[in-house]
Specification:
With 168 residues, this protein is an alpha+beta fold. It has one domain. Helices cover 51% and strands 15% of the residues. Strands 3-2-1-4 form a four-stranded antiparallel sheet. Strand 1 and strand 2 form a beta hairpin.
Amino acid sequence: MTRLRHWWLAVTTLPLLIFNPYLRSLLFGMRTFCRSLPDALRGPLLPALQNLTPNVSRITYSVSDTRHAIRDTDERTLRQLADIAALLDLRSSLGLCLRRSLTRYHFLRRVGVPVVLQFGAKFVAGKPDREVTGHAWLTLNDEPYYEADENWRGFVVMLSFPSDSNSQ
């Protein structure tokens, strides 16, 4: 089912990219961002996440760069492009959910959507004698943000960022 969703995402987004050079440029910027994530996450996690959080008040826009495309792009298209960028980064040492969540987080926050990163863990098959698996997803107003229920249900949230104590 997940592969089908990925194919559908590619098929529905391709026409947008063909006719819009700004969106192609934005996708290129998102792919560059995804490729930089393993290096950005070296070292302590909280400072790394703070560095990945854009300071919206400092962002300026000009016609010649991707920031123009970000400002003029709707939330749905930003999500789709972030998902494609994460899917295309096949050689990454990071899992797809982490790449997708961090890319969505960074670019949605740039346009003022106050999403929150969630990092969770659970036992495989729900049994404590099994391996532990992790997942990353976003929430908005304490609700999962465009995340299928089966992807986040059952996970215990280990870290939310930003939390109330480190809000940006």
